[in-house]
Specification:
By secondary structure, the chain is α+β, with helices and mostly antiparallel strands. The chain has one domain. The chain contains 5 helices and 5 strands; from the N terminus they run βααβαββαβα. Strands 1-3-4-2-5 form a 5-stranded antiparallel beta sheet. A hairpin with an 8-residue loop joins strand 3 and strand 4. Helix 1 packs across helix 2. The protein is globular, with a radius of gyration of 16 Å.
Length: 200
């Protein structure tokens, strides 16, 4: 999946503010928790180390490019199509997960404006990341735009869920990523890392 980079983002010092998110997390994290539950329920049974490059890239969920004007609609497409697929597979709603239950996996943050598309993380993870360092779209939980502090943090990012079978490989991918466009959520400076500090 090819990305279009944006220029560096600068701002005056001050606290971070959430400007926009999909799902909407302005008032509550309930919608994020619902998306996370669906993501875990969808990806957990499909995660296979031997097919890292394809097992979590369901063709029917494939989004458009993560270019500026389409980023949030790309994630909305994944949510909509994944939701339809989940309902077709199991008409009964899934039991809600307890807050903080990550099913043995971890949350990852990806900054699309920071990638240099070097392919190092893809090589280190056997294709879990693509050559643009994008995590597989089945794993996307939410996309966020914030007015960040510190100023060097990019404003847009995707939070995804890493299944337990890929946690070790993703850690290697993060180490192989010199521009730090992929990070464990708790290691990032994002506002959502602060708000989701109990989801570890």
């Amino acid at each position: 999946m090819r990305l279009m980079p944006r220029g560096p983002f600068e701002r005056a010092p001050g606290p971070s503010r959430l400007l926009y998110s999909t799902p909407d997390c302005a008032q509550s994290l309930d919608a994020f928790q619902e998306s996370l539950t669906e993501t875990i329920d969808w990806c957990g049974p499909r995660a296979r180390r031997e097919t890292a490059a394809t097992c979590l890239r369901t063709p029917s969920l494939r989004p458009r490019l993560l270019v500026d004007e389409h980023r949030f609609s790309a994630l909305e497409h994944v949510h909509r199509e994944r939701g339809h697929a989940v309902k077709r597979a199991s008409p009964e709603p899934a039991s809600p997960r307890a807050p903080g239950d990550l099913g043995g996996g971890r949350l990852l943050v990806f900054f699309p404006d920071d990638t240099t598309s070097d392919g190092g993380a893809a090589m280190a993870t056997g294709g879990f990341f693509d050559d643009d360092n994008v995590p597989p779209w089945d794993t996307w939980v939410g996309m966020f735009r914030e007015d960040p502090e510190p100023a060097q943090q990019s404003e847009d990012y995707v939070i995804s869920w890493v299944p337990p079978v890929f946690v070790e490989a993703v850690a290697q991918g993060i180490q192989a990523n010199p521009e730090s466009c992929i990070q464990w959520l708790e290691d990032s400076t994002t506002l959502m890392a602060q708000r989701l500090k109990d989801l570890r």
